[in-house]
Design brief:
Helix content: 10-25%
Largest sheet: 6 strands, antiparallel
Number of helices: 3
Distance between the termini: 41 Å
Shape: elongated
Order of helices and strands: HEEEEEEEEEEEEEHHEEE
Strand content: 25-35%
Structural class: mainly beta
Length: about 260
């Protein structure tokens, strides 16, 4: 009888696609998963409150699915306001339907000034829509654009979350206290490098920088002077002009897809 019961449970698990406990689930309150109202006050990400769906059997169970978490498939540029009036809108398409908690926002520039597109609608589908409503503080004829210095991201602030229908977080990175959903690229400032340091990097006598790549420690000679390295025959050492200015170094984050996975 016990063997028969185990066989029945295995059969049910196989049919329903059960894959064991899951990790990285968005924390949910005891009353169930978060669901957001489809409208919100103008340009105020802090005033949207959560609505809770009635608890359903199995909400307290946390399973791990064997499919990847949803990522961004495509997005539009912010457009509007039409004829100088109305709102600025933008759409972000995910690889599968998603749920939204609280107020995700998209930072952008409106007439060169930093603003936020606020989530408006789309939870339960694969396309989320974001809106900014111009105010008296915005210049007439202001043009919207994604911030070329920051990149293209959805910022999940104040406990905001975007998940798949099972509660798995969308692909994101942690930026301080917030998560960022990178749908294009994201630039994080790394450090400033002065001209003097750049010149040290390009110094062929510096064994810790360029000189270390050109010098063969086995023969104690530069690679281009080593007869055992025929591919350096007729090699001409480049001449580097001294750096005129320093540079700002950034780390760049972007999404990529490996088809085989």
């Amino acid at each position: 009888m016990r063997v028969l019961l185990i066989a029945i449970l295995i059969g049910v698990g196989t049919i329903t696609g059960w894959a064991g406990p899951k990790a990285a689930v968005v924390p949910v309150a005891a009353s169930g998963r978060p669901e957001v109202r489809t409208t919100a006050p103008s340009n105020d990400p802090g005033t949207l409150t959560l609505r809770k769906r009635p608890r359903v059997p199995g909400d307290h169970l946390q399973w791990q699915t064997n499919h990847p978490s949803p990522g961004v498939r495509s997005y539009t540029q912010p457009s509007g306001p039409r004829n100088g009036t109305g709102s600025v809108w933008m759409r972000v398409e995910f690889s599968q339907p998603v749920l939204v908690g609280r107020m995700p926002v998209i930072p952008f520039l409106f007439g060169g000034e930093p603003r936020y597109l606020l989530y408006r609608t789309g939870a339960g589908t694969s396309i989320l829509e974001f809106e900014y409503r111009p105010t008296d503080a915005d210049a007439a004829g202001a043009v919207p654009q994604l911030d070329p210095v920051m990149g293209q991201v959805i910022r999940l602030t104040g406990g905001a979350a975007i998940t798949d229908m099972s509660g798995n977080l969308v692909q994101s990175i942690v930026d301080g206290a917030d998560r960022l959903v990178v749908f294009g690229s994201f630039f994080r400032h790394y450090r400033s490098v002065p001209a003097e340091e750049l010149n040290q990097v390009l110094d062929i006598k510096n064994p810790y920088e360029l000189g270390g790549f050109l010098f063969d420690p086995e023969s104690n000679t530069p690679y281009y002077q080593n007869p055992a390295k025929p591919y350096f025959t007729n090699y001409t050492l480049p001449t580097f002009k001294p750096a005129a200015n320093g540079v700002e170094v950034y780390k760049v984050y972007y999404n990529s897809s490996i088809p085989s996975l």
